[in-house]
User: Which sequence fits this backbone?
């Protein structure tokens, strides 16, 4: 007699129950309303016990249907494991297709494929896009050798965005870089803070300073504001303008320029995300804290801002905001952005937070919003 702990199939359980009751297979077949051949296949494990039959067996033997189904599931899994061929690439595909926004990359022309279902073509294009000689070496995979070191732990979408920015910047030309050129650029940029249309001059000024500047629309969920990295001895600033506002644009740009001045991003790419969050936190690395301080001071001098708040808090009249912005030579939107942070009221002063992307895009290298940057042409 088979012990209950030795049962491996529902057929063995049925056979044991028949033996306990002294029934023949014919008797049980009649009770269940099925043929003897069918019952023999069930007992031999050549036919599975489904939910309907499990309920019928439960009525006959007063055993929960879950018991029969549990044995069936265990048997099916053991059988599948015995005959299945291991596929080491399945885990890789899970990382690639689960982590990368493949459909979005196809739609934006980063990779060429008929759709995400065309797995061989997608994998081939991903190898080309990331410059990897094999699937295993695509840098978003956990154990792939990293050709590009990135500060922190970027997500696959952030790494993909970075590679696109690098691909575009690699085709750009700029004069030799020097710290003097950046300092001169900062002096040229400062007067541009008065109006959104003045941002159209930014790409030329940065290029003359030896900085390659690109705007790449962020990928879904990446939450990237900008990045600083170097190609050979040339610095690159890439921005997303995902918050199309004058205050955000200038803060992010000056943040990245500080990275360039301090030569951050040479050994590990600086990807900056969520710069809308508080400027200084205990967890923030020193490079980011310094860049935030420089950006805030550039947009609205802190001493001037503190004095304005001390005089006007808690009532900030429209005429006061406009008058103060004229005094320090910036657009009211930059003051409004600082006031939102100070008051925590992000629904206030929004009329001043004007967009700038349409002003800067015609003079910049842009990838996104329906446009595909020319690469390798």
Assistant:
């Amino acid at each position: 007699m088979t012990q209950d702990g030795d049962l491996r199939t529902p057929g063995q359980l049925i056979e044991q129950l028949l033996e306990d009751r002294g029934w023949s297979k014919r008797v049980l077949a009649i009770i269940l309303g099925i043929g003897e051949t069918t019952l023999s296949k069930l007992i031999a494990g050549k036919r599975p016990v489904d939910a309907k039959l499990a309920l019928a067996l439960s009525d006959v033997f007063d055993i929960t249907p879950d018991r029969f189904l549990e044995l069936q599931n265990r048997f099916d899994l053991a059988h599948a494991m015995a005959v299945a061929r291991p596929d080491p690439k399945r885990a890789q595909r899970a990382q690639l297709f689960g982590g990368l926004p493949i459909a979005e990359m196809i739609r934006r022309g980063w990779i060429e494929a008929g759709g995400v279902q065309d797995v061989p073509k997608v994998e081939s294009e991903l190898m080309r896009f990331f410059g990897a000689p094999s699937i295993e070496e695509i840098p978003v995979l956990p154990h792939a050798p990293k050709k590009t070191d990135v500060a922190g732990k970027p997500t696959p979408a952030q790494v993909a965005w970075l590679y696109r920015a690098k691909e575009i910047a690699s085709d750009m030309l700029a004069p030799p870089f020097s710290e003097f050129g950046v300092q001169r650029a900062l002096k040229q940029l400062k007067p541009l803070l008065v109006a959104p249309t003045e941002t159209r001059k930014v790409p030329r000024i940065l290029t003359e300073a030896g900085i390659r500047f690109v705007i790449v629309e962020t990928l879904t969920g990446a939450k990237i504001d900008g990045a600083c990295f170097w190609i050979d001895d040339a610095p690159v600033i890439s921005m997303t303008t995902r918050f199309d506002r004058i205050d955000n644009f200038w803060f992010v740009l000056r943040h990245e320029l500080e990275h360039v001045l301090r030569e951050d991003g040479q050994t590990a790419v600086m990807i900056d995300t969520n710069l809308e969050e508080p400027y200084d936190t205990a967890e923030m690395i020193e490079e980011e804290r310094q860049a935030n301080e420089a950006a805030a001071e550039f947009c609205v001098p802190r001493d001037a801002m503190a004095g304005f708040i001390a005089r006007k808090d808690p009532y900030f009249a429209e005429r006061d905001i406009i008058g103060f912005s004229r005094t320090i030579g910036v657009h009211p939107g930059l003051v409004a952005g600082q006031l939102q942070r100070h008051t925590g009221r992000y629904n206030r002063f929004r009329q001043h937070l004007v967009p700038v992307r349409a002003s800067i895009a015609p003079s910049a290298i842009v990838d996104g919003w329906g446009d595909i940057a020319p690469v390798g042409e």
In short: The longest strand covers residues 224-231. The radius of gyration is 32 Å.
